[in-house]
Each structure stands twice: as C-alpha cells, then as structure tokens.
Amino acid sequence: MLSYQHIYHAGCLADVHKHASLCILLETLTAKDKPLTYLETHAGRGLYDLNSLEAQKTGEAAAGILRIKSENRLPAEHPYTKALAQCEKQQGPNIYPGSAALAAALLRQMDKMHLMELHPQEILALQHNMKNTNAQMYQRDGYEGLLALSPPTPRRGLVFIDPSYEIKTEYQDIPRHIEKLVRKWNVAVIAIWYPLLPANNHKPMLERLQALNLPKSFTHEVTFPPANEGHGMIGSGMFYANIPFGVEENLKTLENILPQRV
Ligand SMILES: C[S@@+](CC[C@H](N)C(=O)[O-])C[C@H]1O[C@@H](n2cnc3c(N)ncnc32)[C@H](O)[C@@H]1O
C-alpha cells in the first residue's frame, strides 16, 4: 500500500535540483531536430498547488522554490526558468510544475511521453493535469512498465526515475532494473534521483550502479539546509548514464543556484 504523496514535498530543494537537472537534459536533447521518447517511471501528479494545506504543512516549498524565486537565484536564460515561466503562464503562479509538466513544456510535438504512476489517486490527478498533452499515462509499476516499453520508438530518449524510496528494497532493486534496461535499450539516457540521508542509504545503490560500467555515467550531488526541524534529508543526488556532451558542465552550475548546507 503506497502512502507517499508528493504534494507534501512539492517545490522542496530536492525538487529544484532534480527538476532543474531534467530541464538541462531536455534542453540539450531537444536541440537536435530528431524526435525522442521521454519515459518516466514515477510521474506523481504533474502539477502541485503550493497554496494547499498539504504543501504548506511541511514548509518545504517555502524553503525551496519560493526562496529560490524570491532571492532571484535562477538565471533568466536557464531552461528551468523558461519552463517554470511557461507553466506559470498556463496554470498561475501558485501551481508548481512537477517533472511531467516540465517535460511536457519542453518536449516538441514530434516527441513521445510515457508516464507511469502506481498510486490510484495520483494517477487520476496526473491524467486530469496532463489531459491537454500527448502523454500516454499508465497506472502500473514504473519499473515493470519501463522494461515492458523498452526499447520505445523513437529509440533516442530519456528515462527519468524519481522514486519515493518507500520500499526498503528499492535501493537494491534499482541497479537490477537498470541492468535489464540497458540490455533492452542501450542508448537510453538515464537519470535517477536519490535522497542524501544521514544513514547514507544511497551508497550501496550507487556502488552497484557504478559497477555496471555504463557509458558516460556521472553523479551530481548537492547538500542543503534542512527545511524544518526534524527534516531528515540533507541533500539530493542524481545518477546519470549516456549523458549528452556538455550536460555535465551545465549541471555543475546548479551548485551556485541552490542554497548550500553550512
Ligand atoms: C517522488 S514522487 C514523484 C514526483 C514526480 N516525479 C515529480 O517530480 O513531480 C514518487 C511517486 O512515485 C509513485 N510510486 C511509488 N512507487 C511506484 C512504483 N513502483 N511505480 C510507479 N509509481 C510509484 C508515488 O505514488 C509517487 O507519486
């Protein structure tokens, strides 16, 4: 039974890190005049109302995207700034776009989107929020769906994996799924988000991923101040493979945008 709901954490600093990274990747991938597939295993609900009681309860958006905006930390020409502005124009200033809405803002008519979400309420919200896009949405396990749909057409594409890590074995399971994925779809650009926690739960997962020796792989981590007392997450990490040329340098610029843990 899934209990995690991303609305409580939408717009937190980890979201800013993962979403700004996603926009950097998509800007590079869509610069070429060739179609691509965007496949997301854990899509959430696409749009999040930052005025809702749930979003306000944790203070994470206030310490995250709202602080980033009020301190003008995002350069005007950044792809995340442009995607946020486009979503804001359509949805209003209090609606925070999640990964699916940001991807929809940056993808072109010729690109394909496959979005997986397992939670019964979240998939309904996703289907509602993304109804004006060409996304195909599925209520299914994201890892099972990813392997079933791989390799997609077009083969050029990005897999975005943003789990809630609710299930303890997820850290061990991800490298096994990725090993299977690359056998089926070896050119997929892969982006996996993970939390930095004091217990370092992500370390064995990263070691296993690195042992797969995937081409052009890279990790990018940022640490940040806690959003509230008792907030366990001390930072955010992304593991990438098949990363396009030039993206690594652009990802490093996020270190100047995100407030650092002191
Ligand atoms: C961190 S949230 C996703 C947030 C979203 N990617 C965004 O940035 O807007 C993780 C989501 O994965 C869903 N989920 C959990 N386990 C899943 C699974 N095995 N397959 C698909 N979705 C799952 C949860 O219901 C939750 O909505």
Describe the main β-sheet briefly.
7 strands, mixed
Q: Per DSSP, what share of the residues sits in E-state strands of 2 or more residues? A: 15-25%
Helix content range:
40-55%
Let me know the CATH homologous superfamily.
Vaccinia Virus protein VP39
CATH class: Alpha Beta
Domains, number: 1
Radius of gyration in whole Å, from Cα? Answer: 17 Å
Could you list the spans in which at least 5 consecutive residues all have pLDDT below 50?
Answer: none
**Count of discrete alpha- or pi-helical segments spanning 4 or more residues:** 12
In N-to-C order, the SSE pattern is HEEHHHHEHEHEHEHEHEEHH
Give the total of beta strands: 9
What is the architecture at the second tier of CATH? 3-Layer(aba) Sandwich
> Could you say what the CATH topology is called?
Rossmann fold
Shape summary: globular
Could you describe the 3D structure shown?
Helix content is 41%, strand content 17%. The protein is α/β, with parallel strands linked by helices and 262 residues long. It has a single domain, classed as Rossmann fold, CATH 3.40.50.150. The strands form 2 sheets. A 7-stranded mixed β-sheet has the order 5-4-1-6-7-9-8, sandwiched between helices. It has a two-stranded antiparallel ribbon with strand order 2-3. Helix 1 runs parallel beside helix 6, helix 5 (79-91) packs across helix 6 and helix 9 (170-184) runs parallel beside helix 10 (202-211). The longest helix has 17 residues, at 13-29. The radius of gyration is 17 Å and the shape is globular. The termini are far apart. S-adenosylmethionine is lined by residues 2, 4, 6, 41-44, 98-99, 116-119, 122, 141-142, 162-164.
